[in-house]
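Re: duplicated header lines in exported structure tokens

Our pipeline writes sequence and tokens for each protein into one text file. With two proteins the header for the second block appears twice in some exports. Here is an export where it did not happen, for reference. First protein block:
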Amino acid sequence: MTVEYDGNRPVRVDTVVVSTQHAPEVSHEEIRRTVINQIVKPILPADLVSGDITYHINPTGRFVVGGPHGDCGLTGRKIIVDTYGGWGRHGGGAFSGKDPTKVDRSAAYMARHIAKNIVASELADRCEVQLAYAIGVSEPVSVHIDTDGTGKLEDGRICELVREVYPLTPSGIIKYLELRRPIYQLTAAGGHFGRSEPSFTWESTARAAALLDAAGIAAVAG
């Protein structure tokens, strides 16, 4: 669920995503109607229902095969050690054992890359980037920037610049960060972040100037 906030106060529900396995004889239209009317709407707080809500119900289509039979494989652990040691928030998805089509991995890399470039451009002294996705929907359902009050521009404006400068679809991220290269043995030990090897493309801050260009701000030589 994506919720719009005013400061720390939730004001409206923007998007609801539900993926649910079903019997083969049930149509997608029936699943969508039933989930929205009998599951989602009865529990949405009335004070947060304002305007149109976007519903993504089984957005990839039919979901007949599921569980271990449909989604087996190895996934990693130690997600906090692999990222920020508790300093930054984490979406909960591990990296290891996943190919770059899984946004648990690729979008986490991209979020770090964007945050590093925002700080390198001096648009903020610190920055946290949140990217949220729904399965079967290529564009993120939410892009959120939090500079903790250190931004030289409003966080909303920096968010607009990010959408303008960086590709945020899974395929765009894969191409931009060159994630089809054999990087996975390198990331299996020593952590995914804070590395200096060229293969760790998400650590590059070479695109910081592009943010300034998009904002119409001249870079200052230092």
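Second protein block, exported in the same file:
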Amino acid sequence: MLTELTPLFKKPPLYTKTEIPFWDDEHISLQMLNAHLNPNYDGASRKLEFIEKSVDWISKILPSEHYPSVLDIGCGPGLYTERYAKKGYRVVGVDFSHRSINYAQMNAKRKGLPIDYFYQDYLKLSLDKKFDFATMIYCDFGALSTNDRKQLLKIIYQHLKPGGRFLLDVFSLTQLENFQESQTWEVCPDGGFWCPENYIALNRACKYPDNVTLRQTLVIAKKKVSNYYLWDTYFSKKALEEETVGSGFKICEYFGDVSGSTYSEHSSTLAVLLKK
């Protein structure tokens, strides 16, 4: 058994993708949804207080009178899209989790909110409409590989009207400095986040060159062994500018986060407002 497991827990090549679409796994997707909906937990979405503050700020810098339509990339269960709709925007949300999209659709219907949701891989997004602005929030941009980020920027650019805006955030180099490398293991006799049954998890957190980190989890259950990779890329202003301007965007302004705080060298995130 040890001989078989050792190769699985080796450091993978940069940006190796998880073979299992865990965001649509019946058990894991439920755990992710619960994490999104917990207003006091910021592991999947930011805390409710921050979300409210963020939407208030976005509605001020991009008022619905001048930017009436918004595309939210990686919308999850609709925490931002619902608040956009209540601010008067025409809203479209896109996510690659059936469970999150189904929840968002049911919730919007129950609340009478006119939001269009699409279950799509946003790296292959193709909608027959263009938007006044788009958002991608909670550092999802940096979870993608370099090539996938380039592809995403191209797709967003194509889905914006002339002069449209794109607001996104990433983890800063300060956040990278606080990243702690580690190797741990845990036993979950009653199941847990990754599996409903008894399993052992081997966890690794490690740094890669070019300001990239990996959080890897090897889940050893009775019937199968699964490997999960969660990548993060950390950015300076210069690095973020090179990628976004290189895809045709213009920089409007930098912020410390998507609630409009002033960026400083101590900020854990870096947000940027782009213009097509």
